[in-house]
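During data preparation, we tokenized the protein backbone, and the record follows.
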Amino acid sequence: MQMNAPNGLAVRPETLPKEATKTSDSNIVSNSCRQIVTRLLWEDCQMKKTMMLATAAVVLAFGAGAGVAQEKKQLVIVVKGLDNPFFEAINQGCQKWNAENADSEYECFYTGPASTSDEAGEAQIVQDMLGKPTTVAMAISPSNAKLIAQTLKTAAPTIPIMTLDADLTVEDAALRKTYLGTDNYLMGKKIGEYVKAAKPDGGTVCTIQGNPGADNILRRAQGFRDALSGQEGLAALAGEGGWTEVAGCPVFTNDDGAKGVQAMTDILAANPDLDAFGIMGGWPLFGAPQPYRDLFTPYAERIASNDFVIGAADTIGAEVDLAREGLVTALVGQRPFEMGYLAPGTMIDLIEGKEVADPVFTGLDECTKDTVDTCIQK
């Protein structure tokens, strides 16, 4: 004979006490069955209870994990490359903001491709970060302005986008809310003014530039030419204002210091009577300071007498030391730390719908051999 417990489990007679198998002793059988059924029901209940508790624990753990992931909303800064000390200064400004705003619901998140020359890598990072739910605003330093503009058009982000250090082209400016950084045209113009003041009668010149698609560098080069020529908008100098750009210039070095020094070496070999260099980014000086010294130490006397002139951008790393050594006529520097420090607050203002000026300029520092100890904003 087989009996069924309420939970569906079968109870076989052989599992009952021996005397319960006797049909004449129905009370014993009944009591024994009740004990077994009660035990089985209790075990089934305990098993279900354990499963429910385990399920609840998983749900709670998942919920807690999601809470941690969403604890901070990210104000993302995407730079041209992590291999450039200029951008590391932006990162330091970003991290200072984080330290001063530890209790904020926001955090400044700094990222970029490993190499400044990786334009496609930067565009991919922009696309990836726009796809993250934690990204609530973004500041981009476009290595290739057109490529980043196309990336933004394709992604069609609904969060505030701004540019930092380098801007989009005028035609694509509507894709971002504001630009925060250097007045790059003014920076290039000031470099040109130093070169022109040193050699007012003009001469031959070559500009060293970075990425061909970098809007900030192109604006500096235009300001430089405008200062030398006294005219606006010339694509190249062919005697205007007494200045002529030599063949092979400008040279684009993809922000690589060693390539910059090699390019200047080659230009000097081909043009031994060259009068001036206009370096639109400090890459050869801060990226390859010793090769730069080796190249220009023989020119020290000519630089001191303004017979040979070098105007360069930035005041990073070894650049100020090189100015102190008399191996560059003038430096016109930016304020990258300030850019990184101000960017998170600007993005929050955009998120909150506050009015933000466009552009927001961060100022310039101008250094010569005589002012190196006091020229940089503290």
